[in-house]
Each structure stands twice: as C-alpha cells, then as structure tokens.
Amino acid sequence: MLKKSAITVVIALAFVSVGFTASAATVKNGVACPKSGASTVVTVKGVKNTYVCTTNPAAAANPNIAKSGKTWTLKNCVTYYSAYKGNQQSIDDQRSLVSVMSEPDKTTYTKQLDASQASLMKVLAAIENNYCKTGL
C-alpha cells in the first residue's frame, strides 16, 4: 500500500510540475496573448523580462518572427525597434539632402551614409535575433 501511495505522489508531482512549466512557457515572443496592451514580467534564471501584448514590430521584414497579429513581445524589442526606425528615418532624410549636393560633397556624404546604413543594419540584425525573434 505504501508503495502505491509513493507512486501516486510521484505521478501527482510530475503532473503538477508539468503544469507549472507549461504555464510559464506560454509567455514568449510569438505566443498569442489575451489583450492588446497587456503586460507581464517573466523571470527566468534570475533575469526579469517584460513582455507586452502587441504586434511584433520586426515581424513584417523577418521570417523568423511570428506574424500572427497580437502576440507576447519583449518590451525591449518594441523599444529598440522604435529606436532603429528613428535612425533609419534620419538616414533617409539625410540621403534626400545629399542628393541635391554637388560633387565632391555628394560622393563624400553618400559614402558616410552608406557606412552608417551598414552599421544600422547590423544593429537591426542584433535587435531581431536577441529581442524580437519568435520563442525568446
């Protein structure tokens, strides 16, 4: 009888631990969320991450990111992607100014903008891979 009770307790603990793991795992980038604008904090290995229920801003351009409307998205993804968009707009605005310049300034500033664009694209890749990718 004691053996059956011990087995029952072990099985019950296994179900309970699976239940907790499953509920904790539901808040990740790309997982459907209950209400637009909702926010939650998830702590994994002592690191706190804030997720918001929104459309992932990087989803349109990256196949590694869920495109299913409102999903849990790391708040840092939203913040950093917004900063990227501001920098991209600045480069685009500067390109329109440079286009009306005369040589040699036009070539010089175009090269500088091209270098800035290349650096910004590296930053964007890091944002997408480290903060916006599905499953984080």
Description:
The chain has 136 residues and is an alpha+beta fold. The chain has one domain (29-132). 55% of the residues lie in helices and 15% in strands. The chain has helices at 2-24, 75-98, 105-132, and strands spanning 39-44, 47-55, 70-74. It has a three-stranded antiparallel β-sheet. A hairpin with a 2-residue loop joins β1 and β2 (47-55). α2 (75-98) packs antiparallel against α3 (105-132).
Structure, briefly:
This protein has 136 residues and is an alpha+beta fold.
CA distance, first residue to last residue: 45 Å
Number of helices: 3
Largest sheet: 3 strands, antiparallel
Strand order of the largest sheet: 1-2-3
Give helix and strand order, one letter per element, not per position.
Answer: HEEEHH
Name the beta content range. Answer: 5-15%
Q: Which outline best applies?
A: elongated
Structure summary, number of beta strands: 3
Q: Which runs of at least 5 residues are low in confidence (pLDDT < 50)?
A: 1-25
- Which structural category fits the helices and strands? alpha+beta
Provide the helix percentage: 55-70%
Nearest-integer average pLDDT: 81
Q: Provide the domain count.
A: 1
What is the gyration radius calculated from CA atoms?
23 Å
